[in-house]
Specification:
This protein is an alpha+beta fold. The chain has four helices and five strands. The protein has a five-stranded mixed β-sheet. The structure holds tetrahydrodeoxyuridine. Tetrahydrodeoxyuridine binds next to helix 2.
């Protein structure tokens, strides 16, 4: 598990280098592992029309799905902030569409912490 966390976090940190975040000054990187064994990365892409901004996690998920990988088995989220920056609610909901109770690795100043999607989003929205 630690190997996986380190591998995904390294990819997420690399992706954060491409962040387009001139408005917030807050680069984020994400990396998802798929059931097919592939890693897809994403970074946040901001816009002058702030609401058009896209989070790093959703970029990574959408890249995986658009390449035919619909099953995500782990995700890492990188920021260089001291506090742990968890995926936002919208990203958790999007992730939950393509993932079960997967590991969610989050970077912070005291290292990489391991959570599960079920801990961060115990009840996803589902249309009955
Ligand atoms: N952001 C992400 O990339 N992922 C999240 O889960 C929350 C926030 C980005 C959006 C924006 O570019 C910046 O962080 C500040 O909100």
């Amino acid at each position: 598990m630690e190997n996986l966390a380190n591998k995904l976090m390294a990819a997420a940190a690399q992706a954060a280098k491409h962040s387009y975040s001139p408005y917030s000054g807050f680069p984020v990187g994400a990396a998802v592992l798929t059931a097919g064994g592939k890693v897809f990365c994403g970074t946040n892409v901001e816009n002058a029309s702030y609401g058009a901004t896209m989070c790093a996690e959703r970029v990574a998920v959408f890249k995986a799905v658009s390449e035919g990988e619909r099953e995500i088995t782990a995700i890492a989220v990188y920021t260089d902030a001291a506090a742990y920056a968890f995926p936002c609610g919208m990203c958790l909901q999007v992730l939950s569409e393509f993932a079960g109770d997967i590991p969610v690795f989050v970077a912070g100043s005291s290292g990489v912490k391991h959570f599960t999607l079920g801990q961060l989003l115990p009840h996803r929205f589902e249309k009955s």
